[in-house]
Write a structure and sequence with these properties.
Aldehyde Dehydrogenase, Chain A, domain 2; binds nicotinamide-adenine-dinucleotide; 15 helices; Aldehyde Dehydrogenase, Chain A, domain 1; single chain
Length: about 475
């Protein structure tokens, strides 16, 4: 499959801005470790211009009717669908995931925008009965204001789509700093909004040194809402910056998702379902299943089928036919994977398959299964964000719940059981923002997506994802 890459530009006040004297960085193809293009960085003056544009954009956009806002958003979603093939190929080149996954991501991004376009028309208020005669007590929803959003490299269009969709549907304007490592697909998605007729200033896209941009923007009084997806340490830092200005914030951070397979589940079917989900995007997904607890009677059968699946994956460039797992997104991840494997081995872990870097070109790491690792090993306590699956055994319901809930994270959790009663009990017992019981479908445009504990706060998706960009105002009228 041949493909061209994106034209990398900043988008400020409705204008596309090229490098022209600005600093920048190279974007690397993780399948080859070779540069794809040069990405311009926004200067401080660019950021201030983006903020002025977003203030102007907010005034225009919040005054537009929800009906008209929805028309433009739906048009943008249609353009994303029309251009899905080119955008997906750009996404594969910069991020590494296989084409089929990239295509699903781009199409889902359009679905998210469209869903928010519709939901923005239902940002209802209400009338609360008053105590006095003729009194009207009115509750209205208003856009929170200018939003600063920061998105990572693992879902270059889907994560920005959630933030753009929620903010625009609520009538907010937005300055988005997408990932410098995977900018192209997001640039092309933003181009769809520009081409759909979004007024200048409503959506601005910048790149640069992440800490410099976030500190600059979050400190500005006019930025009233922060939305971040990424690692827990960065999330805590940005939450502190937001707290200084008492700004609303949504934090979608990392996790370490337990999978509990009970003896009354079908071990082979569960293994196939969850293994396919595990190795999606080479495991670089915040809701990726990452700790596998299997009840003793079915442990060997589950492990055998899971390992067989891992061995069957075909590593390579995601644009090539027949490839089922791409490279890791950057060189940092390879080093981290090696650290997990070495620690597991030192603690008595056994490698059922994989365990090493593959080849000497690009950032490929083998689909890996590790057994016999203690609960306090690195792989059982730190988010792997890669293609490593530790599979261990458990005896009782209470024991596994305690082990599953023992970490400070709480983003996603999964369980497989043939019993309706166990399904109810485990769904209630797992400390997690999202739980899939006999299901991995925990991320759709219309359902809330978010974590608890150190995995963050607030939801993206569902009506909760729209509320995240709305202020509630009460008007009492006598
Ligand atoms: P990192 O913590 O350096 O960066 C994570 C993301 O945050 C990147 O996109 C980065 O550009 C951005 N970022 C970093 N510092 C920032 C700042 N001061 N202001 C604004 N944005 C900032 O880590 P990394 O090496 O890119 O990824 C490592 C870990 O991050 C992974 O192990 C995983 O736990 C986590 N991560 C989570 C998600 C997610 O979907 N929740 C996505 C990517 C990475």
């Amino acid at each position: 499959m041949s493909a061209s890459y994106a034209n990398l530009e900043l988008f400020i006040d409705g204008k596309w801005i090229t490098g022209n004297g600005r600093g920048g960085e190279d974007v690397i193809n993780p399948a080859t470790a070779k540069p794809l293009a040069r990405l311009p960085h926004a200067s401080h003056a660019d950021l201030d211009q983006a903020l002025e544009a977003a203030k102007k954009g907010l005034a225009i956009w919040r005054a537009a009717s929800a009906y008209d806002r929805a028309k433009i958003m739906r048009k943008a979603a249609d353009l994303i669908r029309e251009r899905y093939d080119a955008i997906s190929k750009i996404l594969v080149q910069e991020q590494g995931k296989v084409y089929a996954e990239a295509r699903a991501e781009v199409i889902t991004s359009a679905d998210i925008i469209e869903w928010y376009a519709e939901e923005g028309r239902r940002a209802y208020g209400r009338i609360v009965p008053g105590r006095g005669k003729g009194v009207r007590q009115i509750v209205v929803q208003e856009p929170v204001g200018v939003v600063a959003a920061f998105t990572p490299w693992n879902f270059p269009t889907l994560t920005p789509a959630r933030k753009i969709g929620g903010a625009l549907a609520a009538g907010c304007s937005l300055i988005l700093k997408a990932s410098e490592e995977t900018p192209g697909a997001c640039v092309e998605m933003v181009r769809c909004f520009a081409d759909a007729g979004l007024p200048a200033g409503v959506l601005n896209l910048v790149f640069g040194v992440p800490a410099t941009i976030s500190e600059h923007l979050i400190a500005k009084d006019d930025v009233r809402k922060i939305s971040f997806t990424g690692s827990i340490p960065v999330g805590k830092h940005l939450a502190q910056l937001a707290a200084k200005g008492m700004k609303r914030a949504t934090m979608e951070l990392g996790g370490h998702s337990p999978v509990v397979v009970f003896a009354d589940a079908d071990p082979e079917k569960s293994a196939e379902t969850i293994a396919a989900f595990k190795y999606r995007n080479a495991g670089q997904v915040c809701i990726s299943p990452t700790r596998f607890y299997v009840q003793e009677p079915v442990y060997s059968r589950f492990l055998a089928r899971f390992t067989e699946y891992a061995k069957s994956l075909k590593l390579g460039d995601g644009l090539e036919k027949g490839i089922t797992m791409g490279p890791m997104a950057n060189a940092r991840r390879i080093d981290t994977m090696e650290g997990f494997v070495n620690d597991a081995k030192e603690r008595g872990g056994k490698i059922a398959t994989g365990g090493s870097r593959r080849g000497n070109q690009g950032y490929f790491f083998e689909p890996t299964v590790i057994t016999d690792v203690p609960d306090d090993s690195k792989i059982m306590t730190q988010e792997p964000f890669g293609p490593i699956a530790p599979v261990v055994a458990f005896k009782t319901f209470d024991e596994v719940v305690e082990r599953a809930n023992s970490l400070p994270y709480g983003l996603a959790a999964y369980a497989f059981t043939g019993s309706a009663q166990t399904a109810n009990l485990i769904g209630d017992a797992l400390q997690s923002g999202m739980v899939g019981v006999n299901s991995i479908a925990i991320s759709t445009p219309e359902t809330p997506f978010g974590g608890i504990k150190e995995s963050g706060y607030g939801s993206e998706g569902g009506i909760e994802g729209l509320s995240a960009y709305l202020n509630t105002k009460f008007i009492s009228q006598a």
